[in-house]
UniProtKB/TrEMBL annotation:
It holds the Pfam family Lactamase_B. Gene3D superfamilies: Ribonuclease Z/Hydroxyacylglutathione hydrolase-like. One of its GO terms (molecular function) is metal ion binding. This is MBL fold metallo-hydrolase. Residues 55-263 form the Metallo-beta-lactamase domain. Belongs to the metallo-beta-lactamase superfamily. It comes from Pandoraea faecigallinarum.
Length: 300
């Protein structure tokens, strides 16, 4: 009998589970403000391959009678990811059971799983929650006109998603960088700009415990946590992204806050430590959620 492992954490009354969508590949040449040799050395010492395979995480948050998905992975576009649907089924979670999708931002590896190959909505009962600035950016025709041929597809994909969920789309927008606004009971949206204009984290809090899903604060965690000044070509504003990353690393390190991130790697959950003036990542021991596949479990 095949078993699948889904890392999970208990945050008070919430259970948070990491669900893999698979991988995308990206070159270290996409990084800025670091020599290629240093980046490759950090990867090698961390046991990471080069060229890099970047893991894509999504997260399911359950509690208070709700089943919430944070991001939807790449959906197989550009041969990236595409494993979310199968892994949700393996975890026993039907698409119809998801009542809310919290979107960190609208890049393809985060919204690709929102629509079916036939053009329908993948989560037919879900409200889609996204920062208002994110929606405004991707819907702006002037931004589309300035986009390169490659990134033009990103705009078209984001627009398809927003249109597909138009009757179930709720926008939120913290007034200040770093401010937090409750989007659901026990879950607050945190503005984390730079990677995109409306890039958002989600802070899950219950019974004096907390976990921050920080989206795309890092793509190469060992490199960018060790060197928070290092940005990636996917960042809309690399300077703002680096400032946000440095500020956030200070905060989560000081608070010993549990973090989750879409590109943290398969363990899914971690804490940030500081040693001799440098940050590092400590992956968290996760509760086992090994799911046996039985004949009556729906599995693609």
């Amino acid at each position: 009998m095949t078993r699948y492992h889904f890392p999970r954490q208990q945050v008070g009354d919430f259970t948070v589970m990491a669900i893999s969508d698979g991988y995308l590949t990206a070159s270290l040449d996409l990084l800025s403000n670091i020599e290629a040799a240093e980046a490759a050395d950090i990867q090698r010492k961390a046991g990471e391959p080069t060229p890099a395979a970047i893991h894509i995480n999504c997260y399911v948050v359950q509690g208070g009678g709700r089943t919430i998905l944070v991001d939807s992975g790449a959906g197989g576009i550009r041969q990236w990811g595409g494993q979310l649907s199968a892994n949700l089924a393996r975890a026993g979670i039907a698409p119809e059971a998801i009542d809310t999708v919290l979107l960190t931002h609208a890049h393809p590896d985060h919204v690709g799983g929102m629509m079916t190959p036939e053009g329908g909505t993948a989560f037919p009962n879900a409200e889609l929650v996204v920062d208002s600035r994110e929606v405004k950016f991707w819907r702006d025709d002037a931004n589309l006109a300035r986009a390169s041929e490659r990134t033009r597809g990103n705009f078209l994909m984001a627009r398809r998603v927003f249109e597909g969920y138009r009757d179930r789309l709720r926008t939120v927008g913290p007034a200040m960088v770093g401010a937090a606004a409750e989007v659901l009971p026990g879950i607050r949206a945190v503005s984390l700009p730079g990677h995109t204009e409306g890039h958002t984290g989600y802070l899950v809090e219950s019974r004096d415990t907390g976990l921050l899903v920080w989206g795309d604060i890092v793509h190469f965690p060992h490199i960018q946590i060790h060197r928070p000044d290092v940005s990636i070509a996917f960042d809309q504003d690399s300077s703002v992204a680096a400032d946000t990353r440095s500020r956030l690393l200070d905060q989560v390190c000081a608070d010993r806050l549990l973090i989750a991130g879409m590109h943290l790697g398969e363990p899914g959950f971690a804490r940030i430590r500081r040693t001799k003036g440098r940050y590092g990542i400590e992956y968290e021991n996760c509760g086992d959620n090994d799911v046996p596949l039985t004949p009556n479990r729906q599995t693609p």
